[in-house]
Amino acid sequence: MKKIIIGISILFIILISAYLYFFHFKTIKKNNPLMAVPAEASLIIQMDNPFEQWHDITNNKIWQYLKTNPYFLEMGHSIDSMNAEMKANETLWELVMGRPMVISVHQTRPNDYDFLYTIDLQRATQFDFIKNYIGELSEDIHKVFNRTYHGQEVLEFAFEDDPTTYYLSIHENLLTVSSTHTLIEQSIDQMGEPVLIRDLDFIDVSKQLDGNGIKMYVNYAPFSKFMQQWMEPGEEENPTMLDALKYSSLTMDVTDEYISISGYSTIRREQANLLTALINSGEGDVSVGTIVPDNVSYFMSLGFKEALHFYNEMEKVLAEAEDGESYLESKQKIEKFLKISIKDDFLSWIDNEIALIQLNSNSDKNKVELAVALKHQGADEAREHLDFIKQQIRKKTPVKFKGISYKGHEIHYLSIKGFFKMLFGKAFADIDKPYYTIMEDYVVFSNSPKTLGKIITAVVEKSTLDHSQEYANFMEKFNYESNLFIYLSSEELLSDAKRLLDKESWEALTPHQTYFKSFPMMGLQFTTKGKLIRHQLQTNYLNHKQISDWRALVEQSNFKEVQELDSAETSDEDIISIEDILPEDLNSKSFTEEYSNGQLKFEVSLKDGLKHGRYYQYDSAGNLLVKGRYKEDQKKGTWRYYDKTGELLRKERF
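== DUF3352 domain-containing protein ==
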């Protein structure tokens, strides 16, 4: 008995010692899973605990809502099936999915891509059951073969009723799996001589990431090719801002209330571009919300410390473009012809922000309503320099427009074709020969005085973004100083899309409208951190009830529409509803507006942008309601008011 007790004690000590040796004391290789990723990966996803992170992503309210969308329906069924499988075989899935994993996307053929999965097995590599008994992990696995590549063992296996062959290799603590054998072979070569994780630019962006979210890395050279799969022919030739980037590192955080993606990027500085121009120019305010109407579709704010410095950086970008030589010639020609200095007469009064604004348009004449807002250092200084430029234009051109007053703001005309494109590039090309006005801390330019009128109205009625509590809450997620900030409103962009898209495209988009509206605001911000760009993408989620509340709030803040008039019971103030009209062109000879059924609502003659001449107003059936005359924007003479049968109700003398 004593010998049995001693024997059991010795066996127990041996087992404890073996456990401590294998799991605590024995040196285990700790290779970074990223070292197994071939250098030409387009996209890399890194998860420290895939089992938990997968659960978090697929069990939040946002995903549960999105998978009801037809586009995500099939994907949702697949994910639900995987979740059920994981729950039924939790131990097996935790063996693999409970360990750090890297998923990378690679081009395998000219138009074909595949995934490489790299799993950090940690101390599980002490057991050879994965290599020796893989056939026992599932009854569906068959055709297990072994071969070697550069001295490294590679397993080939397939599943019943599936023609796909999978390839698996284990190198120290790393297990790699793919359905393309060349990716496994490239991974084996990579582990012998790592390239990607030794690239200093990649190291710079990867070491900045923290937190427990899913990490992603973008390698822009191969990623551009990857994205071409979804581009129309010829689109891939158009340069984008992303061409300036080399690597990005991103952390994704998904909750029941929002989706947030933040991270860092390195820039290719060998060629000047918009991002290098912004980074080299410092950061500026994101304060254009003080004048942007709360029903804006989109705005982009460029920030910098000094306008002249930014312009000098932009000159490098424009000079290196294909039409760089013509840009320099155009600049010199304008300065010489008008006898002005762009530096002294225009840039000198600009402060630290330039914003491009797109408003929701209800006009077919204006496909897109655009404005440019330049933050000024002082209204008097800006006005003085712009007045000088106007005087020089009058001396050299036949332009005679003197300007008008609208709700206490003067609207002027600056007839210099291609001026903003010349200064700030193609993004501003649609602002051509613009009207302008000064309000708050900004000088605002637009091709359409009607667009300026909307902005003026928003400022006067305090219906700008800065007067919206929702916008204030949203902006708490961002810095109020940046190099670049982009704001999108899904509700207003969808309204624009209905007018701008062709019938087929709009019909394809229609079933998804509610889902877009579930994310009412989206913001993208770029700021500078040393030699890197820090970027953040944020969008908030609203459920069905919140969407309804949001829509009601938007409707309350929208501009008041003129009501259709069919009755003589309304007052003169209600009937004459065009006191603050603004045509698309202040040189127009007349201005008209229609009802939703296409019937003419009113027409009035114009002179220099002011109401001057005959005025007629109709009901929605085409019956004349009002007839009168304006002179220099004031009612003059006898005005007549009718009911819908044509009977004269009264006359009024002005």
